[in-house]
Amino acid sequence: MSIAAQPIDETGNERTPAERRWWLRSLLALIVLVPAALAVMSYEDIRELLRNRDFFAKDVAWGNKARFGGSDWQLTDLRAALGRADIPPEVVPVLVDLTVTVGETDLQSLWLSCRIMLIDGTGRRWLPTAAVSFRQTDDAMTCNSAIFSGAKGGDVLKIRETFLVPKDATATIRPAVGVASERPGFLLFQRPQN
Amino acid sequence: MIQRIANIAVLLLAALLCYGMQTTKPHYADLTAPIPVYGKIGETIQARTFDIAVDKVVFARTLKFDRFGQKKLLTTGGIWAIVTARLDARDRSAMVAAATWQGPDGLNYRASERTSLAAGALPVALDPGVAGRTRLVFEILPSQAADALLLVSGKLAGPLDSEARVALGAVALQADGVPEGTIETYELSDAF
Amino acid sequence: MFGSARSKLKAWIAGGIGTFAALAVGGALGMFDSLQKPVVMLEPGQPVETGPWEVRPLRAYTVDKGVYGLPLKAGEKALVFEAEMTNRTALSSKDYFTTFKSTGGTDDKPYIVLVRDSSMSPALQPGLPERMAYVWGLPAGATPPERFVLAVNGEIYKKRDNLYGVPGWYNEHVIGTVAIPVGAGPDTPDIRP
């Protein structure tokens, strides 16, 4: 019997078959335990990462309402605002109008870090711009000002955001909404059909 | 006896090893430093969230600046360095918030706050497909004008985010120490 | 059995002596630290190195009108102190809010203005000396002092701080005090060394 075939432990005794069996079992257990430990340790980080990202789109057909962050969201308009002299001709200001029927009223936690976006066919994303502003004739507000508007359940809020988009993207852009309480999911609205 | 000497040797070796590891350990500030993307003036440099191409650098002794409809002449103990650059967002809207002029001696000049109300000053918001521009104004020592690096990043403190580092190239100095071609007054107009 | 007990005792005694020695050294160091150090009097007009800054106190005066773009209501008074400050570090900095501290008779926090163009507390650039004005409001009815006593604070450079291991300026401490005669109005001349 060679030494390699019969390992010796530190006290110089030969290993019994039972010990060998447990040694093997422990080794096999590590294959499961090490990845499991890594998963448990990084769980919080991955959750935090996803909570900051709009990852999984939930499509909303034109004219439909969708429950999101405790309220019902509906796209009412997506249009270009032309005729601004101070904007270069290859860039188009785009207005997005949403109508939200408030359900749960705790907007300050449900709508936290609310982000309204435009997403085009190639996956490019635009955030609202502060470079142009249009005189608001009605009671429209931005998503972030709506959070602090003190809206009650059943109130209907008009939310309007302005974007700057190159002309070539205007044919495929779709509005999208993300809030912290629903991330990584987000609403992706179908373009107006008419 | 030999055993004892061997023990001492092992102990010394361990101490040496620990000391070596301690002195060669990278600084925490280095481990979390921004990730540099290098380039030259005129080239388009691709950072993680934006592209930048520096057009030109102008040196001036004074700046003329229209603040709230009131003309102001901004003086300096050194010279003004004005950098204009094109900026583009990559595939999503982005911000460019910080710029630093790093002189050849390693002195770091943040973009001047005295001109933060001028057109093109940081922070600049960028949208994909919409050409952006910035005009960065620095107040520097004339000796730091030549062979400087321009550091531009998306955030003021951006650990582990990319930072564009643009080599601004050689600049000849005049007899009075200021760079050749330094103009008397640069006007911070709305168009640039 | 007996031998082992003796060696245990030895170890206990050695450990005890070590502990007491450490406590004694620590206590002594603490005592030295808390000893009242004599206050260093700094000469106005002379440059002082505080660590991140080289400062030169230049003049102090009272105003009853607005100064350097700072408004002042009728009847209010302010104490203005001006100094030349040079950033000695390698990075633009506005770490000067506590470099000069009033030792009494004024409001707690000053407004700090760049004299060159009256901008409110801008970052100062490495190697470029600038004249800065510290403006303290005076409480209603207070008479301005004849000599304004200021504490000059310095900081030390640490390659890595204890919490994050990042380099920076820490451990603010008083370097000395400067007593500067208070003139009337902004025409007060600079003090010549």
Summarize the model shown.
With 194 residues, chain A is an alpha+beta fold. Helix content of chain A is 23%, strand content 29%.
Structure description:
With 194 residues, chain A is an alpha+beta fold. Chain A is 23% helix and 29% strand. Chain A contains 3 helices and 9 strands. In chain A, the strands form 2 sheets. In chain A, strands 1-9-8-5-6 form a 5-stranded mixed beta sheet, with no helix packed on it. In chain A, strands 2-3-4-7 form a 4-stranded antiparallel beta sheet, with no helix packed on it. Chain A is elongated and about 90 Å long. With 192 residues, chain B is mainly beta. In chain B, the strands form 3 sheets. In chain B, strands 2, 3, 4, 5, 10 and 13 form a 6-stranded mixed beta sheet that branches. Chain C has 193 residues and is α+β, with helices and mostly antiparallel strands. Chain C is built from 1 helix and 9 strands. In chain C, a hairpin with a 3-residue loop joins strand 2 and strand 3 (53-63). The N and C termini of chain C lie far apart (80 Å). The B-C interface holds B 27-29, 72, 74-78, 106-110, 112-114, 139-141, 144 and C 90-92, 114, 116-117, 119, 122-123, 125-130, 160, 164-167.
